[in-house]
Amino acid sequence: MLQALPYHLKVRDHFAQQTNTWNFFAAVKTKEEQLAQYKTELLKNTYKFDETADAAIYEKVVKAKEKLGLEQLPVTVYQAQYTDEMNASIVFLNNEAHIVFSGRITQLLDEDELLAILAHELTHVKLYGMLQGELETAERIIMAIAGNYNSEAAYYETARLYRLYTEIFCDRGAYTVVGDIRPVITSLVKVATGLDKVSADSYIKQAEEIFSATTEVKAATVSHPENFIRARAIQLWHEKKEAAEAEIIPMIEGMTDLDQLDVFKQKDLLQLTRQFMQLMLKPNWFRSTLVTSLAKQYFADFSYDDDITLNEELVETISESHASIKDFLGYVMLDFALVDGELEQVPFGWLFQFAETIQLSGAFDAIVKKELQLSDKKLQQHKQKTMAAWYKIKEGEKEQVYEGDASL
Asked: Which of 189, 250, 404, 405 gets the highest tally of CB atoms within 10 A of its CB?
């Protein structure tokens, strides 16, 4: 049974909480003149397949609609002119679906592969109709925001991931209709390569070889995951159904990268940064006016937490983070090490120790060396001198960041 992917639901829930925006997009309806204009443009630039003369195509459309529960959906299929690029796309307007082939898809694909392509496109409509149309509303919201040049990069990334997950969902629709993952995979590879013959089993092995060679594989494209990811994802779903999500999500999203934060990872990083700063600034001697002012530049509502303690979960989260996240936290530390000259060497000494405790010493050392232009020898001398200054500070028990064993 086809179900919306977790990411679709996260985006839906996120925007559903923004009542005014949600209600505006939910109320927008396609006007008849928009549909008429679109059809006119299609007729100018395509060949429209006839239901009688091209009955074989429409027989497949009917079969796909029946399997997907879209029996009442009017569907028209077209062949684009003036292009050799192979592709298939669908537009859903005013409860009508229009599928456009480009290139020599109908000549290249066999019967099952063509059915898979049609089913894939129609599954887009299936997704739009799920949950009373809420996912279609969510998609229009995130695409509209991401398409605005004033929008934050996080919205663009959210839209990118939403599209990638939609393609994964539509591949599942194709598999549901055809009943075999092989035509789903071979149709993808044929369209991408132009080859007349493709082995699904060989391509699955090729995908497995990619993932066995490295754990840091994720989708890098804008609208469609790479074919080897799609092949691996549909194979996993064939084998495990919903239990496969735990393996598919890392293939689409990978590790959290500072340069590719969606709105959810952005929120998570803000929470991590706040907690990180509260731990770092727990010692009372570190809470000078300049330090507090800098903290409030990061978070206008920043407040100190005298009860916060370091835990293994936070250490594990940081140690397993992407290098860009470690560098970001390292530069946060450097900001606070340098902000108040009256504290002299003490902040650096404390932060060298803190970095070691939370398994950030490699990143922090490299940043200090680079930004202060120190040689390896000078860096070690700087560490020894500043840590000696910190050791002289008498901190109260409540200022310790450790809970229980201080060797954590």
From this structure: 189
Amino acid letter for position 313: E
Residues 7 and 165 sit within 8 Å (Cβ to Cβ): yes
- Which of 239, 178, 164, 179 shows the shortest CA–CA distance to 208? 239
Domain final residue pick, 204, 226, 253:
253
**Claim to verify: residue 241 and residue 373 sit in the same structural domain:** no
Radius of gyration of the chain (CA): 28
The answer to the question of residue 297 being in a domain is yes
118 and 23 share one domain: yes
Domain of residue 292: give its range.
263-399
> Can you tell me which residue has the tokens 């978070």?
299
197-242 pLDDT per residue, tens: 999 999 999 988 888 876 666 766 666 778 889 999 999 999 999 8
Say if residue 179's pLDDT is above 90.
Answer: yes
Same domain, 282 and 188: no
Instruction: Name 33's Cβ contacts closer than 8 Å, sequence gap at least 6.
Output: none
Residue 287 included in any domain: yes
Instruction: Note whether residue 258 is domain-resident.
Output: no
Q: Computed from CA positions of residues 60, 62, 63, 69, in that sequence, does the dihedral angle turn out positive or negative?
A: positive
Quote helix, strand, coil % in the chain, to nearest 5: 65, 5, 30
User: pTM for the whole thing?
Assistant: 0.88
Cα–Cα distance measured from residue 357 to residue 355, given in angstroms and rounded to the nearest whole number = 5
pLDDT given for residue 398 in this prediction: 58
pLDDT value at residue 403: 55
Integer Cα distance of 374 and 384 in angstroms: 14
CB 200 within 8 A of CB 169: no
**In this structure, are 103 and 234 located in the same domain?**
yes
Q: What six digits make up the tokens of 13?
A: 């829930």
Give the residue among 82, 83, 123 at the shortest CA–CA distance from 99. 123
Give the three-class secondary structure for 29.
coil
Rounded Cα distance between 5 and 172, Å, is 11
CATH of the domain at 116: 3.30.2010.10
